[in-house]
Amino acid sequence: MKKLLLIGILLVASNTIFSQCSESTDAYKNLGSAVNLSAEINCSGGDVVLNLVGSNGSGSITFDQNLTFNSFDVTFQNGNKPAQFIIPAGITIHITNDFTFGGQPDKDKFLVVEGTLIIGGTLDFGDLQFEIDGNGTIDAKDIIGAGDITCAAADGGTGTCPLVTSETCEDATNDFCTTSVMPIVLTYFGAEALLHEVKLTWITASEENNDYYTIEKSSNGVDFLELAEVDGAGNSLEVLNYRLLDKSPFQGVSYYRLKQTDYDGTNETFKVVAAEFYGDVEPMKITQHFGSNELNISNNFDEENTAYIYDMMGRSQKIGALQAGNNKVILNRTGLPSKIYVLKVVNALGKVLATQKFVMQ
After folding, report:
1. How far apart are alpha carbons 145 and 215 in whole angstroms?
2. How far apart are CA 60 and CA 87, in angstroms?
3. What is the pTM of this model?
4. Which among 39, 4, 42 has a CA at the least distance from the CA of 119?
């Protein structure tokens, strides 16, 4: 399976030249200690050239939003000029063709990957002395010039080393590259409880030889049953969004697991997510009497519970005991104006049994 790498890239530069993809001339910038790429370059979908990158101190260029480029070229200044690039967690950078580094080969070049870097062509380090850090994913077709790459975790250090995947990798010194094939780059998988069902959503940044997905569900997080199969996209370099509705979730917590299968039958299982579902519980009927501080609740609960009243900003306003059988909670309504609130019933274990909006009269 192909491993993933997220790269956080920090870059500091003085006298740095940015070649805009829509312009034939360079725009010179004296970068500060921290720069967001989107503030300097408006070149989505095009070719970007950064010349004479470097600084006399520490600084960074951060890829601060999801972006797609045709190609990305970086040339460093002469001398030992620090340069740091950052791709934060949750950010996906997609370069359709090549990501190339060149210029002065001395050390103090850093690539920090906490997000996802996808390169459709070649990642060329140009035999520069790079240190790679982060918990992210780099996925390139080919990697060259990696002989002087260091990775703190791979070299016995205490730092983290991203997962790096490619079809071919020129890497003579360490275990920086992994050349097995992973069929998908999964950037999100989550479950959300709705009124009558649970919505499952997953997002992929790329897919390779991806046949289908299997979604499994469980009431205890241990014993899973198949819920559905969803066709994969086969091969794709686009961001793809998938959605599935579980129309019969368990009452309480439902656990969900996503599994992906290749055309050759190889599969990978991803992390488990959960959603709390109480949407099909019989609605509570809340009765109020003018001049009284009592709220009468019609739903029957077989145990003593606690009732909470929240305003629409989620701030707790009142708390009262809800006795089993008599369906009544007595709350002092003093100071609560006539507006919309949420009543939530919670048992002794902290499990939410029911929630309902109502208007305080």
Report:
1. 40
2. 11
3. 0.49
4. 4
Residue type at 259? K
Cα gap 6→188, rounded to integer Å: 14
Other beta carbons within 10 angstroms of residue 40's beta carbon come to: 17
Pairwise CA distance, residues 305 & 345, whole Å: 7
Q: Which residues contact 92 (CB under 8 A, 6 or more apart)?
A: 66, 115, 116, 117, 118, 187, 205, 239
265-292 tens-digit pLDDT: 888 888 788 888 766 555 677 777 776 7
**Identity of residue 293:** N
285 vs 296: CA distance, rounded Å: 8
Tell me the per-residue pLDDT of 32-91, one tens digit each, with 9 for 90 and over: 566 777 666 666 777 888 877 766 656 678 888 888 888 888 887 766 566 778 899 888
The answer for residues whose C-beta is within 8 angstroms of residue 157's C-beta and 6 or more apart is none
SS3 assignment, position 38: helix
Residues 64 and 36: beta-carbon distance below 8 Å: yes
* End-to-end C-alpha distance for the chain, whole angstroms: 61
Q: Identify the burial level of 231 via C-beta atoms within 10 angstroms of its C-beta, where 0-12 means exposed, 13-18 middle and 19 or more buried.
A: exposed
Paired tokens of 100: 């190339």
How many C-beta neighbours within 10 Å does residue 67 have? Answer: 20
User: Distance between CA 68 and CA 299 in Å, rounded?
Assistant: 53
